[in-house]
Amino acid sequence: MDVRLPLTTAGICFALLLGGCSPGEEKHALSLEEKTAQFEQSLDAITDPKLKDAVSELGGSLLLLERAQQKLDGIPMRIEYGEDALGVLKHYPTPQALVDTFINGLFVLHKDASSDYLTDLQPVFPFILNTPGGFLFPHGVEWQSVTLSNKRVIAWQPEWSETDPGIQLSPSSSNVTNPDDLTVTYPFIEGLDVDKKTQPQPVSLQGQVEVIAPRRLYTFDLTKKDLGQTRTNDNLSVKLLKLEKNYAEVEVSNSLPLAAQVAGTPLNPLIVQARDNTGQYLVRAGSINESPEQVAFYEKQLVHLQQQKSWSDSLETQLTNDQQTFEQQHPRRYNKVYFNGPIETLEVSVLDFSSATVTRKALDLPIRAFSQHTTEKAIQPLDLPVVVYDDQAVSWLKGASLTEEQLKAGIRIHQSVEDPSAARIEFSHRRTFNDELLGDDFSPGESPVTFFTEKHNGKLDEPIELPPEAYQVDPLQATITYDLNLFPETPAIAVGSMPLFLATVAQQAYDANSLPKGLEIKNNTLVVDLKLFPANEWRFFVKDDSGNYLKQILSVSHDAKAEGPALFGVHYFYGHPTRVETYQRTDLATVQYGFEVKLDKAQAGNSAP
């Protein structure tokens, strides 16, 4: 949750617009729901459409900001570890080398869609883009056209048109997990069957990419002793305003102006990370990038707007000038960042855009098709001219040595009683590498559960006699479902045992010149004989001469025939492996997790008789 108010020219003061009276006249602090309702009512009184839109935009943003602040303040304290967001920079000698890797590692996959009239295209980036630990530098990709197998060029359009009778290239609406995906849509003719093989297929995708690399990146390491102090390195300064248990507030400034070529580009030069007393990085829970002074300024602008009867050019100019004056008077950038865990040390990294290198490149990318299961004998090449490392592999592979105690300690119990006829108890844990190697040969054994009433002192009373249909245990999904309508008494506590599954994993490592039979390195691929290394029992990770794990691009299996056995698998990597690590499940144990769960009460009116 990262919240930034839009730099708009209108807004609303909560005290006046939402309450209709001064703060001193308020009898109680308005709840967010009350503020929202009054805000919506107040908009009805604005008759000028442009003024109403402006008020609605920033007023809604202020409500969103307050809602986000409440949610972040209410985050329960839990520890969750992540990766160093700057780790990727350590693998490249210069920021420009990282930029070149980002651009040269981009390719496009042809994906089969569910309809004969659709073809999906997936641009594949060498770095994850849409996470806090994604690509570090400002970037953008603008798609322009797709070239079909019949040489026809289809121009990009920002959305699919129902009235366009031709072939269209537009953003995909079917894949929310990959927002960069595109769709080639063929015209649908009622009553006419279309053979997909006869349609011209996309062969290349055209566009332009732009990436901005900063002059440098500098990191300030801060602790509580730095509170209120300004730390400076050359033209960069950081002031630690507050450091609480799970959040920090900082201000950052750059005494040099932005480079001319990026002066009009939205930039976020801050990367704030935290470690706890173990030295591990904590996962960010969210951030708010508007200081109290900024929020007060927006509210002041909106007080002025509230006094207006209509929108005018002079009003817009005044608001814009006020905005610029405020920014000149408050040059420091504010950031309030929350973390999942107690902060011991804070790392504030600043991208220095006082000078910058802007790399622009025209793209003409061949569209590649890789079926997850293919009957082709030949291995299709996918050797990209870049090296990308998998910095998550080290922590992920810790799951290979997961112990019974660690597995049990990671269990979280969730309850749902909204539907009394299908109340649920769920046992979950964060997915680990161990889960990946469990396979599908489970023997859960018995999963006993007994429901009890409760004495006045909170201790167990008598067990409740129940018909078999009153509850159901699904050990593979780790859930218990029970029907309160079939209980003669209201249950208070559930006691029992839920089976968990733990793989025993054997690890081996081999140099490229001493691989066992069934494993072979070819350029940037690892070829695996699936008869000797069945896919449900084995996993493979590779390193190059640097000693770092290479990131896998994709993997496919080559089958004897469409419905036949798999012959060999091919794993493609960003880089050329020189060392292979194998992980084999040698045993699968069932671990009994004993529990005593105090049951949530059903809502009034929904409880069992």
Q: Judging from the principal axes of the Cα atoms, what is the shape? A: globular
What percentage of the residues does DSSP assign to strands (E)? 35-45%
Number of DSSP E strands: 29
* Overall pLDDT level: 87
Q: Which percent bin holds the helix content?
A: 10-25%
Count of discrete structural domains: 4
Radius of gyration, in Å, reads 29 Å
Which sheet architecture does the biggest sheet show?
Answer: 9 strands, mixed
First and last CA, distance? 42 Å
Number of helices: 9
Low-confidence stretches: 1-28, 605-609
Q: By helix and strand content, what is the structural category?
A: alpha+beta
Task: Tell me what you see in this structure.
The strands form five sheets. Strands 2, 3, 4, 5, 6, 7, 8, 12 and 15 form a nine-stranded mixed beta sheet that branches. The chain is α+β, with helices and mostly antiparallel strands. The model is unreliable at 1-28 and 605-609 (pLDDT under 50). It is globular. 16% of the residues lie in helices and 36% in strands. The chain contains nine helices and 29 strands. It has helices at 14-18, 32-43, 49-73, 95-104, 292-306, 313-329, 393-396, 404-409, 433-436; strands at 2-3, 107-112, 118-124, 139-148, 153-155, 168-171, 182-185, 202-222, 230-233, 236-243, 247-254, 270-275, 284-288, 333-339, 345-369, 373-374, 412-416, 423-428, 449-454, 460-463, 471-474, 479-482, 493-511, 519-522, 525-529, 538-543, 552-559, 566-573, 579-598. The protein has four domains: 2-74 and 292-328, no CATH class; 102-212 and 360-366, no CATH class; 372-401 and 505-589, no CATH class; 415-430 and 438-502 and 592-598, no CATH class. Helix 2 runs antiparallel to helix 3 (49-73) and helix 3 (49-73) runs antiparallel to helix 5.
